[in-house]
Amino acid sequence: MAFAHKGHDTIVFDNYFRRDAARALHANALLPNPDLKERAKIWNAVSDAPIRVEIGDCMDFKRLSKLVEELEPDCIIHYAEQPSAPYSMLGYEEASRTLHNNLGSTFNLIWAVKEHVPDCHIVKLGTMGEYGTPNIDIEEGWLDVKHNGRTHKFLYPRTPGSLYHTTKVMDTDLLWFYARIYGIRVTDLMQGPVYGLSTPETDMDARLLPNFHYDDVFGTVLNRFMVQAVAGIPLTVYGSGGQRKGFLNLLDTLQCVELAMNNPPEAGELRILNQFTEVFSVNELAELVYRVGNEMGLGVEIKAIENPRKESEDHYFNVKHSGLLELGLKPHLMSDEVLAEMIRRVAQYKDKIDPGQIMPRMSWRNA
Amino acid sequence: MAFAHKGHDTIVFDNYFRRDAARALHANALLPNPDLKERAKIWNAVSDAPIRVEIGDCMDFKRLSKLVEELEPDCIIHYAEQPSAPYSMLGYEEASRTLHNNLGSTFNLIWAVKEHVPDCHIVKLGTMGEYGTPNIDIEEGWLDVKHNGRTHKFLYPRTPGSLYHTTKVMDTDLLWFYARIYGIRVTDLMQGPVYGLSTPETDMDARLLPNFHYDDVFGTVLNRFMVQAVAGIPLTVYGSGGQRKGFLNLLDTLQCVELAMNNPPEAGELRILNQFTEVFSVNELAELVYRVGNEMGLGVEIKAIENPRKESEDHYFNVKHSGLLELGLKPHLMSDEVLAEMIRRVAQYKDKIDPGQIMPRMSWRNA
Questions:
Q1: Distance (Å, rounded) from C-alpha B120 to C-alpha B106?
Q2: Strand ranges inside chain B, DSSP E
Q3: Which chain B residues are Cβ-neighbours of A147 within 8 angstroms?
Q4: Is residue A24's pLDDT more than 70?
Q5: Is B100 in Cβ contact with A104 (below 8 Å)?
Q6: With 80 as the cut, is the pLDDT of residue B131 above it?
Q7: What is the structure's pLDDT at A365?
Q8: Which residues contact B157 (CB under 8 A, 6 or more apart)?
Q9: Do B154 and A151 touch (CB under 8 A)?
Q10: Contact at 8 Å (CB) between B113 and B122?
């Protein structure tokens, strides 16, 4: 909607993977969630920038390839991956679906582009979680290594913390290989967790609000905390809460993708941009929701629980993220008012909150 | 056969992937090539160490899992991958089969082990080609990186030169992830090209000789050169011939795998061993075959052709490979006599040589 609104001819191709997976796990999105065809109808009625929706699967190469051939896109924004780390750790079936979907969809997209629109720019959603938490500075995609008196620039070595994140490391490898061999052009956006419940476009109709999950599988930590604050449930901090990540506002995600799209890399280039604006630890987020929620009279409490993940809870974290700022990103930073506004939105849907979705159902230790 | 001969209870599970793919490409092995069931029958008649053969596909998780549950192996040697770089570059279908087979089979194996024999040692065949040709020393799997005053040990960053090699980088990532999360134990043998036409076991019956391909897709450079020398065709050097690789004798491959098997790593460890004994450039191999072949009166010539691959033809190459020597490897090095003996073996099958299989049919430049 944001890109259509700005004048880009926009087509969406989707197979409802997450919607179906969330339904199978009884994880219901908090905000109204009409399907894509319905949302397109609503959007096309309230805006003057219509969006075409095609329902189909990137794993179906003939279908995807034909669509790319027909449309001749200048840019393809590749979000067609199973996006949840906990989902990928549930068991064999979910892990297998994650591996095959994420690599198969990326592979098919590469070949559709290579065969029909070799100059097309692929903007792929990566994740900051690919890097893991090494004990040195995290650079923006590449690392100059000095070793025994010689130097070489490598793709920054990655240590992902879930099977999902491992598939994202692999799809970067796949895109980079085909970039250097066949000259496709790729931007890999290493995104941190996104927060935000509205944009100028979603506010045109309440049925256009973004997807909002707060459950243990598809939710994010800040969504969970806001829902817990509203529902009177203590904020569940996993382990000691020292885990630090780079976050960004939904408005900035949209800016970043458009900046990447409007400034494509060279043919044969894999450009990597670290996409976040601010770093918070889990404890800092919990304290922020605690303070702002209590100022709103919500009676928020914090409670540490055993960490279902295997991850460092106290780690070095110094990450470069200058590329998108250089392209022109104007960050929307977190503030008490931004958080309070999100909590007020969540509170409007308080009756729909299902506390049974919140606690972790799987563990990295005993899948 | 070598492992059975040494007293290991040995079961082979195979789906004839390479055999079928080679047949589809009209790439015929030079030496007699009865199928596995027939070979097992021949072997079981001439030896006192019978081998059981099961024909099936590692992509069939139920079948593989049931077999692992039934057998409770101490060690699984994982060779179940599409092994050819040129095959993986032929086109969409071959690339797709390579990606899905190599990752799917590794993934299924991991889960079968995790569910039924968590202490089982997986010995996976990797390849030296995963490293590519960086401008610094290649270490044995891991690299201590110093950066801005801090240090971190990373999996050695890899820059593979074909889709096949890219899938091998990915399966290392997959095994490493599950090693650190679920505690499986893995040895990754980063093998260089193997040469050799016989072992004590294969020499017990001419129908037990190893697989010998010399074609553009499944052959190796030294096999091609020996066949060209015997057939009176100039040795085809790809490009300027400065490409350097680590090679080893078939006898040493078998030693290495058994040394790994008899000395398993700890639970949760990914142990990486660089498996080769000597480095040769393509030109050095061509000159060796030229000299020895001409001493045998074969009238050998050398002819450079355009390189179908995208690779460095003049690169730094200093690779550590002490791990297997420390485990006890006693190398069988290349010599004029070793080469002459191989050429004499190839010459026995001179009438079966098909010159139409030798020249490259695909290019990295225009798949």
A1: 14
A2: 11-14, 52-55, 75-78, 121-127, 142-147, 150-155, 185-191, 194-195, 235-238, 244-249, 270-275, 278-281, 302-305
A3: 136-137, 143, 145
A4: yes
A5: yes
A6: yes
A7: 76
A8: A143, A145, A154, A155, A156, A157, B134, B143
A9: no
A10: yes
- Which 8-state DSSP code applies to residue B319? B
Per the confidence metrics, is the pTM higher than 0.95? yes
Hey, what are B210's tokens? 């190893």
Q: Domains in chain B, start-ordered, CATH in brackets?
A: 2-357 (3.40.50.720)
Tokens describing residue A355: 């506390």
Query: How many Cβ atoms from other residues are within 10 Å of residue A263's Cβ?
Result: 13
Q: Which of A92, A135, A182 sits opposite B152 (nearest CB)?
A: A135
Name chain B contacts of A115, Cβ cutoff 8 Å: 92
Phi, then psi, of A196 in degrees rounded to 5: 135, 140
Give me the residue from B96, B100, B177 closest to A163, CB to CB.
B177
How large is the ipTM?
0.96
Q: Are residues B252 and B331 in contact, defined by beta-carbon separation less than 8 angstroms?
A: yes
Q: What is the mean pLDDT of chain A?
A: 96
Query: Is residue B40 a contact partner of residue B208, using CB atoms and an 8 Å limit?
Result: no
* Planar angle of CA A39, A40, A46, nearest 5 degrees: 90
CA distances from A203 to A39, A71, B244 (A): 13, 29, 61
Give the pLDDT score at A367.
52
> What span, in angstroms and rounded, lies between the C-alpha atoms of A26 and A216?
11
Closest CA to B72 of B9, B147, B135: B9
CA-closest candidate to residue A254, choices A318, A324, A309: A324
